TrEMBL record:
Pfam families: Oxidored_molyb. This is Molybdopterin-dependent oxidoreductase. Transmembrane segments: none annotated. Residues 5-142 form the Oxidoreductase molybdopterin-binding domain. Gene3D superfamilies: Oxidoreductase, molybdopterin-binding domain (3.90.420.10). It comes from the Archaea.
C-alpha cells in the first residue's frame, strides 16, 4: 500500500514507539524521548527526488536497537506504521543507519508528512520511508508475510 491516510489521532504527547522482538530488554519511548535523547540530524531527500533536501532531526535506529540488547542471531527488523496494512522489512545492519525523525526543519513533522515519527533510511526509495512509525520488531530471520512492502523490497534486504 503506497498511499495511506494519515491517522486521525497523531498527538505527539500520546504517541509511543516500541522496539521489541528478538531482544532482551524491549522498550517503549515517547516522541519527547526521541527528540531529546541522542539527537542527530540528517539532510535527505528520496532517491531520485528532485526537491531540495530538508533537515530532519531525531534518534538513530541503531541507538534504540542497542538499548534493547538484540539477540546475537538478530539479522532483520520489521518497521510498523500505525496503518495496520503497512510494514517494511530491512536488514538490521542497514536499518541501524536510519533515523527515526520527529522534526523537520526545526518543526514537529506534520501528520500529513508522516509525523509524529517517520523513518528515514539512507539511500532509500520513498516507499521505505515509513510514516507514523509505532513499532520496530527485531527479527532473527528475514520478514515474511508481515512485510506488506515485501513486493517492493529487493531480495537482499
Amino acid at each position: 500500500m503506497l498511499h495511506s491516510e494519515p491517522p486521525t489521532d497523531a498527538d505527539p504527547d500520546r504517541w509511543t514507539l516500541t522496539v521489541d522482538g528478538a531482544v532482551a530488554d524491549p522498550l517503549s519511548v515517547s516522541v519527547a524521548d526521541l527528540a531529546a535523547d541522542d539527537a542527530m540530524r540528517s539532510s535527505t531527500a528520496c532517491t531520485g527526488e528532485t526537491a531540495a533536501a530538508q533537515t530532519w532531526q531525531g534518534i538513530g535506529v541503531g541507538t534504540l536497537v542497542d538499548r534493547t540488547v538484540p539477540d546475537a542471531a538478530a539479522t532483520h527488523a520489521l518497521v510498523h506504521s500505525v496503518d495496520p496494512e503497512y510494514a517494511c522489512g530491512f536488514a538490521l545492519d542497514r536499518l541501524r543507519a536510519a533515523l527515526l525523525a520527529v522534526r523537520v526543519d526545526d518543526e514537529p513533522i506534520p501528520t500529513e508528512r508522516g509525523g509524529p515519527v517517520r523513518l528515514l533510511v539512507p539511500d532509500a526509495d520513498c516507499w521505505e520511508r515509513v510514516k507514523w512509525v509505532t513499532r520496530v520488531d527485531v527479527l532473527t530471520d528475514p520478514p515474511g508475510e508481515a512485510d506488506t512492502a515485501r513486493d517492493r523490497v529487493p531480495a537482499d534486504v
